[in-house]
Amino acid sequence: MTDPTETFTLTIPKTDWLTQNAREHWATTARKKKAIRMRSRLEARRQGLSRRTERTLSTILVGYPSARRADPENAAPTIKAAIDGLVDAGILIDDNSTWWAHGTDRDPEKTEPGMYRLTITMETAA
GO MF terms on file (predicted)? Predict the structure, then answer.
């Protein structure tokens, strides 16, 4: 049986962080997506997350290295790559709307300089 609630924390260096506003060469974006996806897969296994066998609701907190204004929804490409890593690790069945739903907000706790953080709390949908 799936644990009712689990929290997954992923720290991502600024050099790999993706945003919707970034205008980079497609190969640079692809490399960053691959790096985030792999980091997420490996970290999920290291943290010992259990396989989610039912529809999962997630709250995603985006941690920034500064206190200035931020748009957490702008981190969607990074979040997508991280969730793909959870699917690759076998934690989530799939990331389509049948199996997964989420909300995103800003983490009030700052990260260390040059780093971003995703804190993903997963719970079984009622």
Answer: magnesium ion binding
